[in-house]
Design goal:
CATH architecture: Roll
CATH superfamily: Pleckstrin-homology domain (PH domain)/Phosphotyrosine-binding domain (PTB)
Oligomer: single chain
Strand order of the largest sheet: 6-5-4-7
Order of helices and strands: HEEEEEEHE
Helix content: 10-25%
CATH class: Mainly Beta
Strand content: over 45%
Number of helices: 2
Length: 101
């Protein structure tokens, strides 16, 4: 696996509280397993968060920007099998930047 060889987690997990978004790394892929060893990667206060997303076919590209540092985290979510992604983005005040067409 390329992510493993680069020392990167296989998947990212978003944990959201009313005040904070946490990005956690998980080595193991799939629905089952790998949940006990999550590595904290990023913590962003929701007051300093800009969320932008755009759809490209069956993939949603999501940008999380920390306005205090200007740091941007770009992730992709498959729209199939990820129930609730749209609701999550809406709850975070996300802006759809998908162009016409």
């Amino acid at each position: 696996m390329a992510a493993d060889q680069a020392g990167m987690p296989g998947t990212l997990v978003l944990a959201v509280s009313p005040s904070t978004v946490y990005v956690l790394g998980r080595r193991r892929l799939g629905l089952v397993g790998g949940w006990r060893t999550l590595t904290p990667l990023v913590k962003i206060d929701c007051r300093h968060l800009i969320v932008e997303h755009r759809r490209r076919g069956l993939v949603m590209q999501i940008d999380f920007t920390d306005t205090t540092t200007g740091s941007k985290l770009e992730v992709e979510a498959r729209l199939l099998g990820n129930l609730g992604v749209t609701d999550l983005l809406q709850n975070l005040g996300g802006t759809d930047t998908t162009g016409p067409g």
